[in-house]
Each structure stands twice: as structure tokens, then as C-alpha cells.
Amino acid sequence: MSKKLIGEGSREGLFIRLPKSEKAILDQYCRLTDRRQTDVIREYIRSLEAKLQPH
Length: 55
Hints:
The protein has helices at 20-33, 37-52.
């Protein structure tokens, strides 16, 4: 059984520029958590949805 991803089939690319210091933080976090940068960034973007909801 395969996992269905949110937005599967409608993917778009994203290119971002980061200061070296922020890239180093992302790299370190990904190494420590054994996760890909894409997964970490995707999870953060999904967490933004809750911040958009009225309180």
C-alpha cells in the first residue's frame, strides 16, 4: 500500500536563496533528524496552514 501525498500529481518546483548561515542550520537539522531538506521544508509549509486559521 502506498502513501498518498498531499497535493500528489500537482507538484511545482521551488528555488530559494538562503544566507550561508541559514543553509548551515538547515543542513545540520537534516543531518541530526536524518531527513531530507525537501521533507523538512514541506512539513514547515504545511504547518503554516494552522496559522492561517482564525483563532
